[in-house]
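Morning, I've got a small favour to ask if you have a moment. I've dropped the whole record in just underneath, so have a look.
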Amino acid sequence: MSAGAGGINIVGAGLAGALLALLLARRGLRVSLYERRPDPRQSEPESGRSINLALAARGMRALERAGVMERVRPLLIPMRGRMVHDLSGHAALQPYGQREHEVIWSVGRADLNRVLIEEAARHASVRVRFSQLCLGADLQHDRLHFRDHASGAVHEAALTPTIASDGAGSVLRASLAAVGLVSAREEWLDHDYKELTIPAAAAGSLERHALHIWPRGGFMLIALPNTDGSFTATLFLARSGEKSFAALGTPAAVAQFFEREFADAVPLLADLTAQFATHPQGQLGTVHATPWHVAGRLLLLGDAAHAIVPFHGQGMNAAFEDCTTLDELLAAGGDWQALFAQFERVRRPNTAAIAQMALENYSEMRDAVLDARFVRRKAIAMGLERRFPDRFIPRYSMVMFHPEITYAEALRRGSVQAQLLEELDPGAAGEPDAALAEKLISERLPPIA
């Protein structure tokens, strides 16, 4: 069957599923969108999930393609760099880029999801069904099975074709793995996270247009701004060990830990020990699945296929880029089997690259940002970008601000550039050799197409 005709199921109406439903409806497809949660337009957001996210150029390009950017824009707060808080309480801004548009945007997950669902549901060809728990896929009989939360009734729908956007804990991925059609592995980080709220009344001392980081080597606290003036803070910390969540089992231990490690943040965190005791502790991990599709019948997309750790702010952006890629392939025509296979060929190298870079960025955020060599080399990199803008773009900038550069290419070029910086760094006392820089860059970094 042609991929441009007929209907399609999407299981999971989170950010990627709702955006994809909107894109496919704009292309004229009939979409049945199933979601296990209640309608977010009529209920409170689900607890335990990240409250706000970082939106960057790749995600914005997808939202623009779907025609919803103007509705999303009022939800965004620009963050121009990392405000790094050292142990003494001193804070310094490290800009993300050096051009006016080189910012990333804090956005509330629930508000963005609500907009995408509203826009998708405006299309008569989209049927959204909430409180529908997917029980799995039966490929032998070409059926999807669901349980209605309200009635408890089990029902089914035709499987072919279906896109699984049901998140890192995907039921559909698990059902494929259970019958040997997919090999799936979840690689858990030995660090967990817990979110805390900095109320607007206490947040006056925090720079609003920055992502705040309290890096402490093996762990860190971060804070992102919200539209109501509050900040959402997140502690990333080892699960067990001397400095770990396991060691913070009493209010006194929590208070002592924060006073010792994040003294300047303590006055901002109202009811710290109560928040710490009641807010959920979440896990962090990377999902590896092979393959992502079963012929032209079912495709894993977004976190269901390639969930990553959050330290590059690219989980949502990568999932949105999945939606853009699938929509572009649909425009080229062909059947579902060819489309799903091509989607995986195009996206797999790039999602593997961003998974690696996200893990590497955790070390940078919790440790390197306070290192004098890191700060010096970042300044050298920005200088090289100004001199050679068509050849040298810092890896972080390629990922966040240049959607025309694939993740895989950003990883490859970033490795070359890291070696260049190693060779060009004169140490604390000198300046890079301009002639050597020109020679090495012209030899090793071809212009970006």
Q: What stands out?
A: The mean pLDDT is 95.
